[in-house]
Amino acid sequence: MCHYHQTSPESPFTRKIVCSQTTPDGRLTVADRRLILTRNGTREEQLLASDEERSAALKQYLKIVF
Fold first, then answer.
1. For residue 34, how many other CB atoms are within 10 A of its CB?
2. Rounded distance, CA 24 to CA 13, Å?
3. Which of 1, 18, 31, 33 is the most exposed place for a label (fewest CB within 10 A)?
4. pTM of this prediction?
5. Segment (H or E) for 6
6. How far is C-alpha 56 from the chain's CA centre?
7. Do 62 and 19 meet the contact criterion of CB atoms below 8 Å apart?
């Protein structure tokens, strides 16, 4: 299954940008232009208006810098 997820054109991981990290109380995810914060079972979703906003969210929440 790992090979499929990494290489298949049908896999969501080859069709969009996805970065996710677990936290002590939930998960932080940047998926394309959405920031998804899940804390204590509550999910908040925020639209990121530009590539710059996505880069800023990756840096702020996931410590990823391009």
1. 15
2. 24
3. 1
4. 0.80
5. helix 2-7
6. 12
7. yes
Alpha-carbon distances of 11 from 8, 18, 41, 58, 59, rounded to whole Å: 5, 12, 26, 22, 25
What is the predicted pLDDT for the residue at 17?
Answer: 86
How is residue 40 written in tokens? 């204590």
pLDDT digits (tens, 9 = 90+) for 1-42: 789 888 998 888 888 889 999 999 999 999 999 999 999 999
CA 45 vs. chain centroid, Å, equals: 11
Tokens read off for 9: 């054109």
How far CA 61 is from CA of 17, 31, 37, 48, 53, in Å, comes to 15, 13, 10, 13, 12
The pLDDT assigned to 63 comes to 94
Q: Residue 56 in 3-state DSSP?
A: helix
